[in-house]
Specification:
This protein is an alpha/beta fold. It has helices spanning 41-45, 64-75, 94-102, 122-129, 152-166, 187-191, 225-236, 262-278, 316-328, and strands spanning 5-10, 15-20, 34-36, 39-40, 48-51, 79-82, 107-111, 133-137, 201-204, 241-246, 281-286, 340-344, 351-357, 363-369, 374-375, 380-381, 387-393, 400-403, 413-415, 420-425, 430-434.
Length: 435
């Protein structure tokens, strides 16, 4: 078997791990019992962000104190992506809102839209946002609704402008992302390699109602994950990659771009950050926090990407992601990682896993199945029958606790320990705390 090495990680964000395509160790250990080096739970926690539209005053984002701020803090995420930060009302501007969020440790990835060079001056923006500013991104999707030849040079100019300006920000080196495109198949080669003018690559990746690993359904936003990542590297080279938009809308009758039910989206949204983390993506910004609820606009998929409904209530995706973040959260501190030697039943072919570790020495093994839970043609949920999965350990753990983020952030079951455990794994991701 050709053991092509998969290198997953981002040194800039503090994580790195390697494994082969068959799941075995780089050193060639048996695939039935692998000694796997984990990554820090804090690195995974910080790999999850969310998109906001803080300056959309004609949507639900207008209600900062009653909806936007409390829901963002309740979710527990520490990274947001936004570009709508000018204007607003007297005493309530996007900038004053951001400064308030900064007090809670929220970090901002800021989009420069490339319209007004003065308004979109990265140096001015860095001074306005201070320590909250994590990174800067040039013009968003410049190829959207454009023909070849109409957008490429403008995009290159914007990348150069933002990168040059960012390097002149006094007292702080602010990371610069590459440009994210709307079309991920042909347009990356049209734009060309800009890796010398960016610190992170940038990609928008929507699964169009399917599981994040099952993206093979078109060449616009919906592009199979492996293809989209390889195409993004035509622009960013070997620089680390960030997915700045990924998620699911719940307007199931959309004829623009396929959605899925709230039930299905909740399962996919928990799988999604693990899928992209395993693929070497440094951070994924889920699109987005709130449904828009623009007056008079209902039958538009863009109104329905939120984790929070138009009436302010939480969708199942919000609760599941909140639980996940609560489970894996820990402070960013340096500690020595220790490998865990285990094997997963090879008869179940659709399983993927991620191994994390916390400062207390506990290992956290995420197990999930790469299955669709929604039929995009009939608009009906798919019931996935659970399968029995055996996990073997080289050393008997002292305790094994099961968590299911789609259900709770508390222990669902404490398993009987031994050198082998068996569990029923359906569509919902399971996290095993192993000590």
């Amino acid at each position: 078997m050709n053991k092509h090495l998969l290198l997953t990680g981002c040194l800039a964000l503090g994580f790195l791990f390697c494994r082969c395509e068959d799941g075995s160790l780089v050193d060639g250990s048996s695939p039935s019992m692998n000694e796997v080096m984990p990554t820090r739970a804090s690195a995974f926690f910080n790999s999850i962000g969310v998109n906001t539209h803080i300056g959309f005053y004609d949507t639900n984002y207008a209600d900062f104190q009653g909806m936007l701020k409390p829901r963002l803090l309740e979710l527990g995420v520490k990274h947001i992506r936004d570009g709508n930060i000018w204007g607003g009302n007297s005493g309530d501007t996007p900038l004053t809102r951001c400064k308030e969020l900064e007090q809670y440790g929220i970090n901002l990835l800021l989009i420069c839209f490339g319209g007004d060079p003065v308004v979109d001056d990265p140096v001015e923006r860095a001074g306005a946002f201070g320590q909250m500013l994590w990174g800067i991104e040039p013009v968003n999707e410049p190829d959207l609704n454009k023909k070849p030849g109409e957008w490429e040079q403008h995009a290159r100019n914007e990348q150069q402008r933002v990168f040059t300006a960012a390097r002149s920000i006094p007292g702080k080196q602010v990371p610069v992302l590459g440009i994210a495109l709307a079309e991920n198949v042909d347009n990356p080669s049209r734009l060309g390699n800009l890796s010398s003018q960016l610190d992170f690559g940038n990609l928008h990746l929507y699964a169009s109602g399917l599981h994040p690993t099952n993206q093979d359904f078109g060449n616009y936003w919906g592009t199979r994950m492996e293809v989209a990542i390889s195409k993004a590297r035509l622009i960013c080279g070997e620089k680390p990659l960030i997915i700045t938009e990924a998620g699911y809308h719940n307007y199931e009758n959309s004829n623009q771009f396929r959605g899925c039910s709230e039930k299905a989206a909740a399962i996919y949204h928990v799988h999604l950050p693990f899928v992209y983390y395993n693929a070497g993506v440094s951070r994924t910004y889920i699109y987005e926090l709130l449904d828009w609820n623009k007056a008079g606009v209902v039958d538009d998929m863009n109104m329905h990407y939120g984790l929070i409904r138009a009436d302010g209530s939480a969708k199942p995706s919000f609760r599941a992601l909140k639980n996940l973040l609560s489970i894996v959260k820990e402070e960013e501190v340096s500690y020595e990682l220790s490998p865990l030697k285990f094997g997963i039943d090879p008869t179940v072919k659709d399983i993927e896993y991620t191994l994390l570790q916390k400062q207390d020495g506990s290992h956290w093994l995420a197990l999930f199945r790469k299955v669709n839970v929604y039929d995009v043609k009939t608009h009906k949920d798919i019931e996935v029958d659970p399968v029995n999965v055996n996990v073997e350990f080289a050393e008997i753990p002292s305790s094994i606790d099961m968590y299911i983020p789609n259900q709770s952030d508390q222990i669902i079951q404490s398993l009987k320990t031994g050198d082998k455990i068996s569990l029923q794994l359906g569509a919902e991701l399971v996290l095993l705390k192993i000590k």
